Amino acid sequence: MAGRKKVLLPIPKNYSASERELNEKCAVFGVYGPNDDAARVTYYGLWALQHRGQESSGIATAEKGRLHRHAANGLVAHVYSTEDLVKLPGRISIGHNRYATSGDARELYNQPIMNTAKSFAFAHNGNLPDYGKLAAFLQKNDVDTAHLNDSHMMSEAIDYYVGKGQGLEEAIVSAYPLFEGVFSAVAMDDSKLIAFRDRCGIRPLSIGKLGDSYVIASETCAFYTIGAKFVRDVKPGEMVIIDERGITSRQIVKGTQKLDIFEFVYFARPDSVLMGERVNSVRERFGVEMAKEFPVEADVIIPVPDSAIPAAVGYAKASGIPFDMGLIKNRYIHRTFIQPTAEMRRRDVRMKLNPVTESIAGKRVVLVDDSIVRGTTMRQVIQMIRDVGAKEIHVLISCPPVKYPDFYGINTPDQADLIASRLGVNEIRDYLGADSLYFLSHDGMVRATNLPESVFSLSCFDGVYPIPIGRQAKTIKRIPANPHSTKQKRPASAKPIKALA
Ligand code: 5GP
Ligand code: MG
């Protein structure tokens, strides 16, 4: 582009861990009309999508050919004041919540992104693990990519075509082949709202109706909050354009649905509906499947709050063992930008969770969590429960062992840090200090969704990446079915339950 210095940089061979943590699981939102207060609707939409990103939040609006933007680090409740929203006039708006787990809080990476001419804004949930082609294209066209992350590169590529005189819609279609990776994205200019999704629809994206106008959200839970009605999901490979004519659809490439099943396991809000299935119900059925696969004789079922609550409810319903909130979560814990001391980091789980002694002491406990990543949470929770006198601790995890890193926009550590990439089930059990440990089977997990396996990406579990991960593929180590251990065995103390629902 004119005025830009041509800097040819080597394309990064690999993301460093901190670079990968820059664009994690995020939330996007967009609204077209019905009145001049689009920013306020977006604000409440982002509020409902806070779980998808707590590091920063941003809103862009358009009014009479001018785009406005406000973005800052922090939670939605902290990022916007009433005055900030007043300075965001217009009937079209997009918003974004960003998530990262590292201490890195560079405002530079906050979204929505506006192009230099301030003629459009763009927000992205997902990750491009293989941005070589995109970076090379930009470099060839005199764009310095040194400080751009994948989302910014996408915006620059769209801007390149806008600079060639294309409208936003055409520019996205032109740039789309450069986007190798995962994206549920929204974009806007002063006359339209656009939403588009990668060819596998790895991250969710839905369309809602608000009065006579349309809204777009990462998850359907946002529709209820703002009084919108769910219409349908944006299809894989599809672009929808919302403007004064209403809504139009363009299938940019042929799509094959491969939703990341981890959305059901951990990430999505339980009240959201993904591909027609209520997340809460799917999680309850995870619990029912676990009760069928691994019935334990116990006195109480306790979830690690909040994400494991529905699975524990399902296990309790199916087994008849009483459910109890034996762990209480401090609901006001969120990211602070004060670096924790080493001692506080060690006590991390204790800052979030307290045990309820009366629910635990002297009891045989079934402890349910949604997933084990590094194993740090569960190890500390088990210690906490032992300390208040649990007699036995049987751990149930409502997904299979996470053996492969995610490259599609969820933050997981490097493969070596995934405990299941190094240890078999029995070793993990011993490391955690549990009496028994059971991971829901692959088939049980899929069955619980009521959807065919073919519509999912299961890459965290099976290492099959439906969208190429480029050079990252070389870093992946194949893990045998169950290294070192062959069977998930019940200990003698954990007898099968006779009658199961
Ligand atoms: P671990 O302590 O084993 O590393 O992580 C497992 C715990 O983290 C579980 O309680 C699960 O609910 C939660 N978890 C799973 N995936 C994610 C994620 O992508 N981000 C965050 N913040 N937590 C996660
Ligand atoms: Mg958890």
> Widest sheet: strand order?
3-2-4-1-10-9-11
Protein structure class: alpha+beta
How much is the average pLDDT?
89
Query: What is the rounded Rg?
Result: 23 Å
For the termini, the CA-CA separation is 65 Å
Write the layout of secondary structure elements.
Layout: H1 17-20, E1 27-32, H2 38-48, E2 56-63, E3 66-73, H3 76-79, H4 82-86, E4 92-98, E5 113-114, E6 121-127, H5 132-140, H6 150-163, H7 168-175, E7 182-188, E8 193-197, E9 206-210, E10 213-217, H8 221-226, E11 229-233, E12 238-243, E13 246-251, E14 259-260, H9 262-267, E15 273-274, E16 277-278, H10 279-293, E17 300-303, H11 309-319, E18 327-329, H12 342-346, H13 348-352, E19 353-355, H14 357-360, E20 364-369, H15 376-387, E21 392-397, H16 419-422, H17 425-432, E22 436-439, H18 442-448, E23 456-457, H19 459-462
Parallel strand pairs: 14-23, 17-20, 20-21, 21-22
Antiparallel strand pairs: 1-4, 1-10, 2-3, 2-4, 5-6, 6-7, 7-8, 8-12, 9-10, 9-11, 12-13, 15-16, 18-19
The protein binds guanosine-5'-monophosphate (5GP) and magnesium ion (MG).
Residues 304, 307, 369-370 line the site of magnesium ion.
Q: What would you note in describing this structure?
A:
By secondary structure, the chain is an alpha+beta fold. It is built from 19 helices and 23 strands. The strands form six sheets. A seven-stranded antiparallel β-sheet has the order 3-2-4-1-10-9-11. Strands 5-6-7-8-12-13 form a six-stranded antiparallel β-sheet, with helices on one face. α6 packs across α7 and α10 (279-293) crosses α11 (309-319). The radius of gyration is 23 Å and the shape is globular. Bound molecules: guanosine-5'-monophosphate and magnesium ion. Magnesium ion is lined by residues 304, 307, 369-370.
